[in-house]
Amino acid sequence: MVNQDPFTQKKKHILDSIASTNEGTLDSSPKGSIDKACIPIIDLINSFDNMVTTSSCSGRVSVFVEGRKETDNDKIKIGAKGNEGKWLFVTHEPENLNNWFKKFQLKDQEKLGLSDVAADTRYVLYKFEPLILHVKCKDLDTAKQLYAISMACGFRESGIGSNNNVAIRCSIRLDAPIAIYNGDSDAFYKLVSTEYLKLLCKISEDRFTENFHKLSILYDSISKATFAAQPEHKETKEERRERKMKEGLLKQQLLKSESSS
Amino acid sequence: MVNQDPFTQKKKHILDSIASTNEGTLDSSPKGSIDKACIPIIDLINSFDNMVTTSSCSGRVSVFVEGRKETDNDKIKIGAKGNEGKWLFVTHEPENLNNWFKKFQLKDQEKLGLSDVAADTRYVLYKFEPLILHVKCKDLDTAKQLYAISMACGFRESGIGSNNNVAIRCSIRLDAPIAIYNGDSDAFYKLVSTEYLKLLCKISEDRFTENFHKLSILYDSISKATFAAQPEHKETKEERRERKMKEGLLKQQLLKSESSS
Q1: Helix-strand-coil percent breakdown of chain A, rounded to 5?
Q2: What is chain B's Cα-based Rg?
Q3: Least CA distance to A174: which residue of chain B?
C-alpha cells in the first residue's frame, strides 16, 4: 500500500493487532474479545474509511465489592473497582442472569441497618450499564456527524473527546447496594431480600431489551448515513444493473450536450 | 457597546435574561433558580469572555414514579419521568435527606416479589445524580481546553457536543428500585426495608461529599487555567507595578530598535 495518511495507518494498525488475537472481530478492546451483540455495529462502523472503533461494551450487569475506601484530605472517597475491589459476577447476556446470587454466600442478618455501617463500610453493588462505544474518526466533520446521529438515536450522553474520538453513551442504568462486606472473610451480608434480588434480575432483563432496541436503532441510522468517505461495499447484481443504467443515461446526456454545443 | 461578535451577543442575551428573573446568579436554567453549590463555578466560568454556562445541576437525590410504559414494536420501553411520571422527592442538599420517606405512604406487603410484577409494572426509583454543567464556548479551542480540564479532574463522561457546547459529567450514581406503584391509588408498596431506605440516605450523603469534593477540584483547575481570552480581573497594586515595569522595558526596547534602524 502506498502513501497512507496517518489515520488510515493507525486504523490498519488497530485492526491488525485485533485480528491477530481475535479472529473475525475488529476492535482494540483490552478484554481481548468483543461482546457478541457489538460485532455487527463494530463491523459496520469499521467499514467506513474514516472511522475505527477503539473500545466497546454491549451493555452488562455487574456485581462487585467496592475497593477499600481512601481518605483524601480527611474525606473518604467512595469505593470504586480499584483498591482491592472484587468482581463477583459479570454478564453481557440476559439469559445468564437467572439465579446468579446462588453462587455466593449471601448471608441474612436480622435488622442489618445504619448502626452496622461506618464511613469506610464496603458495599456490594449491583449495576446495569448500557452500551458504550468509542469511535476514532479521521476528522472533526465525521466526528460531529457521528455525534449528531447518536444523539438523535437517544444516546443523549454522547460526546466528542480529544482527537476526534466520539463516545456513544446513554443513561439506561441500575446502581443499587445489595450487601455489606466485612472484609475479613468471604461472607456478604444481605441488605435486601432474595425476592428483591430476583426483581433486580427481572428489571435488568427489561434494561437489556431497551438497550438492544436502542443499539438496533443506532445500527440502522449509521448504515443509512453518508459519511464523508463511503463504506466499502460489495455491489449486488441489481445495484450493478442500476448503476450501469444511470451511467448509460449520463453518457447519452453528455453526447447530446456535446453535439448541441 | 459596539460591534459585538455573535458569541458575545449570545452570552449577553443569556446573562441578561437570567439576571431579570434570578438576581445575582448567572445561568439559563429552565428551573429559574440555580443550585446554591453551583453559583461559584458558574460565576467563575462566566467571568471568562469565551465561555457561558447554559445549564447546571449541582448533584441531587430524586425519588420518582416511572411514567406509564409504552409499547414500541411489541417491546415495552422502560419507564422514564415523562408519560405521567411523578416526582415524589428531590433535594440538592444532603441535610434534607433525613427521613424523606416518612412523608409518603410506603406500605409494607409481605413477600412482594416476582409474581406481583408484570412487564408494565411501574417502579418507584431512588436516584443519586452527580454534578452536571453545560458550557457554551466561543470556539473549538476553548471547548477542547475545558474538556481536557474536566477529564483531568475526574469528570470522565464529559464531552464536546454541537456548537462547541461542553457537557461536564461524571459517574457518581445510585439508581435503585424501592417500591411498586399499582396505578389506581397513591399507595406505594415497598420492595425494601425502612432500614435499607435509611442506608440509601447515608450512602447518598457519601455521594454528595464525593461530588462536592470533585466540584471543588474542578473549580480550582478552571480558576488556574488560562483560556484564549483572560477572565475579567481587577489588577492588584503589585500586578500593576509589574505591568508598568514590563511596559517601560518594552518602550525602551522599542526606542532602541527605532534609533538603531
Answers
A1: 40, 25, 35
A2: 25
A3: B175
Global ipTM: 0.81
Specify burial of residue A196 (Cβ count, 10 A radius: 0-12, 13-18, 19+): buried
Residue B213 has pLDDT above 90, yes or no: yes
Query: A161 and chain B: CB distance < 8 Å anywhere?
Result: yes
CATH domain A6-69+77-230 topology: SSo0622-like fold (3.30.1960)
- Phi, psi angles (nearest 5°) of residue A35: -55, 130
CATH level 2 (architecture), domain B7-230? 2-Layer Sandwich (3.30)
Instruction: Write out chain B residues lying below 8 Å of A67, CB-based.
Output: none
pLDDT tens digit sequence for A77-102: 565 666 678 889 999 999 999 888 88
Whether the Cβ atoms of residue B138 and residue B164 lie closer than 8 Å to each other: yes
Question: CB–CB of B199 and A117 under 8 A?
Answer: yes
Model confidence at B93: pLDDT above 90: yes
Question: Which has the closest alpha carbon to B159: A20, A245, A69, A148?
Answer: A148
Average pLDDT value for residue range A244-253: 70
So where are chain B's domains?
Answer: 7-230, 236-261
Note the pLDDT of residue B73.
Answer: 54
User: Are A54 and A15 contacting, i.e. CB atoms less than 8 angstroms apart?
Assistant: no
Determine the residue of chain B that is closest to A121 in CA distance.
B203
φ, ψ of residue A75 in degrees (nearest 5): -110, 140
Query: Least CB-CB distance to A114: which of B159, B173, B198?
Result: B198
Name the packing angle between helices B39-46 and B194-224 (round to 10°): 20
A-facing residues of B in 77-136 (CB < 8 A) are 77-78, 111-114, 117, 119, 123
User: What are the tens digits of pLDDT across the range B1-37?
Assistant: 567 899 999 999 998 877 765 544 555 544 557 888 9
Q: Residue B205's pLDDT is what?
A: 95
Inter-chain touch A113–B76, beta carbons under 8 Å: no
DSSP state letters, B34-67: --GGGHHHHHHHHTBTTEEEEEEE--EEEEEEPP
| pLDDT per position as a tens digit, B100-151 | 888 887 888 767 778 888 877 899 999 999 999 999 999 999 999 999 999 9
